[in-house]
Every structure is written in structure tokens, then in C-alpha cells.
Amino acid sequence: MRRVVAASITTVLVAAGLAVTGGSAVAHGRGYSALIQRASHGVPHITARDFASLGYGVGFAQAEDNICLIAEQIVTVRAERSRWFGADIANISSDLFHQKSLDGRAAERWLVGPRDGVRAPSNEVRDQLRGFAAGYNAYLRDGKKKINDPACVGKEWVRPVTELDLWRVNWARMVRASSGALADGIVAAAPPAGAAPDARTSKVDVSPVGTESTRGRAGELTGSAGELTGTLPAPGAAAVVEARDGAPAGVGSNAYGLGRDATTSGAGMLLANPHFPWDGDERFYRMRLKVPGRYDVEGAALVGDPLIEIGHNGKVAWSHTVSTARRFVWHRLSLVPGDPTSYRYDGRTRKMTVRTVTVGTPGGPVSRAFYDTHFGPVVVVPGRFDWTTDTAYAITDVNATNNRALDGWLAMGRATSVRDLRSVLDRRQFLPWVNVIAADRDGRALYADHSVVPRVTDSLAAACIPAPFQSLYATSGQAVLDGSRSACELGRDRDAAVPGILGPANLPTLVRDDYVTNSNDSYWLANPDRPLVGYPRIIGDERTVRSLRTRVGVHQVRQRLAGTDGLPGRGFTTGRLWDVTLGNRVYGGELVRDDLVRLCEAQPMATASDGTTVDLTAACAALRRWDLRVNLGSRGSHVFTEFARAGGMRFADPFDPAAPLTTPSRLAIDDPAVRTALADAVRLLDGIPLNARLGDIQTEPRGTARIPIHGGWPETGVFNMIINQVQPGVGYPKVRHGTSYLMAVELGRGGPSGRQLLTYSQSANPNSPWYADQTRLYSAKGWDTVKFTPKQLRSDPNLVTYRVGERHS
């Protein structure tokens, strides 16, 4: 039964002269007003007459559930982590990086230009962020004494926010896979010892207060009230250099776009299955947002973001997977002899710009000199991209100027078909580091890597990547360009939205009536019946080995269409799509488990990496009885997980690009590293029964309860990815990241229908009623229903309605 909550904010609304008529929020005079209908599991359905009021409702609702997460985001982009959370190496490095962007007015520059949503953000998006800040601040004013999340209750760093703060958060998210991933390397960059910078400097003083620390990373730091010195490691930079693709560390996804030939109804269907952290400010948040006649979308966004990023309207559904494309390019600088802060460009000398950035810490201000070129910042990755007396490396980050994303997602939410959605992608080119997979009501499915990619064409790569770096480009897609020639600048594609990025004609796109899929490999096999080939290497690789997760993802679709997966019938319903996604097959186990068991039974004694002799008998028995799944009742799956993670998945047969979904597949039983990996797994699992049920040892804490969690590591070929670390003698007591938002939606003629779930629940606050409910639902492979039509929403037995708003001058 629906009821209206008489909260203090409602009193404020009425006193301000704001009224609600006809079931939607209407503001009299100048003000904000939004109707919030909380459905089951606390999911807000927010309706407002304009985007400012919609933003207000979103900011208020998100603050109710996750105010500490948003407040910490603001601390980060204000470069105040050291002030409030302690002066460890991670916080100081973060603060210096963000203070540099503050000093350089990065967010402010985003807002200059024609407000067309491409050259500068539109008025609608600006209104949305302005309203979000106002709604957040209204909750803070009304609820500060009521905040009961132990993460920030009573903390001085929970303060009002501004619209500009939110743009800074958006900037930080855009550079997540580029400058943000290289932040430590940007902070650490310094000319060779003994070389003094010769340039103008600017300095900002920040007063230090506070001592609390919430994050930490080993490192050495000295230099209170002066220059930052000592050891500044660059783990983020190294991770990007060594990574197989351009993905931000710790995130990924699966997605299916199913067309008319793959569904039993003939309507389009979508699986959204992003894999993101279960804790911190990169959690998803479910919501439904509506401005009547202008915008109506249900789905999820990252906490702190004002618009739906993965979801559906009445005719189109879409999801994102992390793309393999690179987001930045390196420029090798030829330095002037005797002056390592000057470089040669077209035969002339250019000086680096040097700026001193200062941040406050409890021990006093700390400063660091940053070095920039006309390409972008100088970056150091020790042992790979060093700054010597004759060479340095700068990057161009094409997402640092990507102010188009929020307008892009707004336009996606208004698309009426796959064709229309593709036009949005072509015109706006805003996706920062993700692919898009979509389906529409007419039964068309779309895959596109229309993300923001530096314009490194094959001809530019051949002419401008020096010979020592050609192999790096071929294997990883990292482009190191000759920084001494203007001919090696990125240039502009005629069809590109902005200079320096590949235009739509150079980006892979596929529309199908059957299906498209992606699980974080490149675009090549979005549909194996129509491989995508011939694109610049910077986007991804072709005709190379696919991950086991990619392979099982395609097999699942093909077997469902053929009716050979053990489930009734052929083709997909949303129920069958849910069953397939959470079927928890371990494809690597299907390939090699039997050979592994035969090997360890024939040779039960093995030597671990540390030289210890290990009896494999119990491990062999557990693997033989294992059901080849990572369900709660699966026994022994953790033995295979640790075997794979120890490097045991070694194959005897080579990869065959003509059979990419079935090769390689045979265990290399003659490779001694296979038995060593199993011995290492047994050693690591000492104290944990090798035949334990997964649900007894893999859990997620919620208060004093431990919720059993199914799913597993992608190295083993698990589609339903759950990442955690084994604790000796205990098991897997905390999920780090993995399956987060789940949506299986069908776009039928009667409106969207299907299932959805947020695995870690709507709120990070342990005192919230929405802290554990969806997590328990996920444990049981349950779901919440899509609630898009008025009938679907009205049928929710837990619906609670209230109104929020305020008058402003």
C-alpha cells in the first residue's frame, strides 16, 4: 500500500510554497521540487518537471543512502585527503595530482564554449548538476544530526558541495584509465639529479588539519613544509604499462545484446553485468529518473553521478563493458643537451612549463614541481619510461578534455532505436573507456567501441612510432610517438567530434538480428560469425587468443539458441537469461579438470614453488568430485581457483585464429609447472578443507552476518565474476569486486520487463535498511523486477512516496 512520508523536508517544501499536482513535481516560482517514490530495496523513482529539480531529487536520494561515499569523493577532488585522512604516500600523491588540476582550472575550462553538449555541457546537464548539489546540501542541512553511517558520522569533512565540485568528480572519472591511472608517475616525474628547473612557478598554500587515515600504501616520503622528496612509486603507471589492454585496474564487465533471432518473443533483450568494486565510491546506485516528455530511464549510475549510465527507456536498453582501447599516447621527447627541461620540436627549442603545487598535511605543507609540455604532462615509469639527460616522455590524455559524457548519456536515454543510439554515439563520441552493447524493441542488437581513442592510425603508427617501440605497440596498443616532429601530432579525423581522436569511421561497430557480446576482450569477436577486423591497433587486438570468460560467454549464447545447455526450450526469455548468467559454469574446469585429476592421481607427490613436497591426494579427490561450478554448494571449486591463479592453466595445443572459441583447450600435462601450481594451491589452502562447500568459505560480511557468495575468478573461465583474496585458514571472507549491477530486460510492446539486482545493495551504510537485502537476494540467485510502467510500479507492495524541494532566489 502506497503511503506519503511526512518528513521534515516535506514541511520545508510546503513552507516554501511548492506544491505537487497530478502525481508529478511542480515548482511555483523559482525553486526545486521532485517526487521520490521508493520501491522495494530502497530504489528511488524520481519525477520532476525539469532537469534542475530532477538533479535535486537525485542528490537528495543519493545523500540519504550514501552521503559518506559522496562526501569522500569531494574530499578527493578538492585535494584534501591528506588533510582529513592522514599524510600517507597514497593520499599525498592523490592530493598533488588533484591540486594540479585545480590550479590548472581543468573543470572550469570544460564549461567554456557553446552549450551544445559537444563543445561545452548543455544547460540541461548544468541544471542537473546544480540541482544535485542543491539536493545533497538540503539533505545535509536537514539530516546532518541524523547521519548514522559510522564512516562519516560527526566528521568535519562532510560539508556542502558545489556544482563545480561535481564537475571535478566527473573530470576525475573521465581520466580514470589515463591520467588518473598514471597519477603517481605524473607526481613522481622529475629531471635527472642535479638538473635545476628553469621556469616560472606558481604555488598554492593549504593549511594542514586533521589526522584520520582511511587509506594507505607503503612508500617513503619526506619534506614537510618544503619540496616533496623521497620515494614516490608509480604503481598506477606500471599497471597501465604492463596491462594487456587499456582498462582501468579492477573493473570489467559482461554484456549481451540479443536480437529478434535470439529471443522467444522476437523483441530485443539485454544483459547488463558490470564488474566493479563492492566498496568505495565506484559502487553503482539503482534509480529511475523521469522528466515527463523529455527523459524517462531506469537503471544504474555510479554513486555521485546524476544520470543513468547503464539502463533502458521504453524502446532501447544498453550496457557498457570496459574497452581494450588506449586512452593516451606517449611522446618521446628529445631533450636539449645540458637542459633536461627543454625539448626539440621541429628543430626548435621548447621549454617545459614547471608549476609548483602545494598541499596541506597534518605535518605542514608539502610541495612538488610538475612538468608539462604542449603535449601534456611528463610521466615517469621507472625502468620503462625514465627521464634521462637526453630523453623524457609526456602523454596526451584525450579524456582530459572529454566534457561531453553527461550530455552523451542524457542523449542515450532519449534514443528510440539502435539506429538512433548509433547516431548519438557518432555525433557525440563521449564514452570515456567503455564499449556499448544495446538492443531495441524491434529486435536489433548493437555492439560499438565508440569510446574516446587517440587518433593513432596505421599510417601514423608506421611513420611516427620509433623502431624500439613498434613491438610495444603491436603487443599492447601503447603508442610511443616521436615528440620531435609536428607531423607526429594526433591530428583530426574529418568525422571526429573533436580533434585528436579517431572518428566513427575508424571505430568498430556491428548491428545484428541475433546477438552481440563482450567480456572485456577486444571488438574482434563481438559476434564470431561476423568478425570485426582492420581497425587501428590502439583500439584492440585481432586474431589473438580470447579469455576463457569471453569464450564461455559466447558458448552460453550459442548453446541456449541451440537448446543444448540443459535448460528447457531454445532461445532467451529474461528468466533464461538470468539462469544462464548465474549458472556459474567454470569453463576452464570443463576443459582440463579430468586431465588434471588423472595427472595428480598418477603422480600424487609434487614440489611446491618453495621446495616443499606436497601430497596431492586430497586435492585430486576434491577435484574429481567437484561439479564444475562455483555455486554455493560446489565442493572443491576453490582448489581449482587457486590452481589457476598459481599459473596452472597451461595448454599443450596452440591458439588457432580459425578456431578462436575452442583453442587452446588441452592441459599441458608434461609441463612440470602444472603440478607445481596444484602443489602451491594446496599449500595456500592449508587449514581450509579442500572439499569445502564454496558457500561456507566465500562470504560477504553484513554486520555480524556472513552472506554466502557464489561466483568466481575469471582466470578459471567463470562468467559470473567475483574477485576476492584467500585468507589462510579461513577462506574468502570479503568480496573485492565483480558482478555488481545485474539487469536482464526485454523491450516488449507492452513495455520493458525483466529482472535486475544490485549485488552489494543500495546503501553502504550498515545502519540503512538497504544495506544487505539485495546481497542476500543475490546469494539466493533471486531478483527484483523491472518497474518501468505505472502498473509495474504501483504493484510494488513496499512503495513509499515523499516530496522534496526548496525555493531559491
Automatic annotation (TrEMBL):
Residues making up the signal peptide according to the UniProt record: none
SUPFAM superfamilies: N-terminal nucleophile aminohydrolases (Ntn hydrolases)
Database matches in Pfam families: Penicil_amidase
Keyword Transmembrane found: no
Region (Disordered): 192-229
InterPro entries from the UniProt entry: Ntn_hydrolases_N (IPR029055), Penicillin_amidase_A-knob (IPR043147), Penicillin_amidase_dom1 (IPR023343), Penicillin_amidase_N_B-knob (IPR043146), S45 (IPR002692)
Family: Belongs to the peptidase S45 family.
Official protein name in the record: Aculeacin A acylase
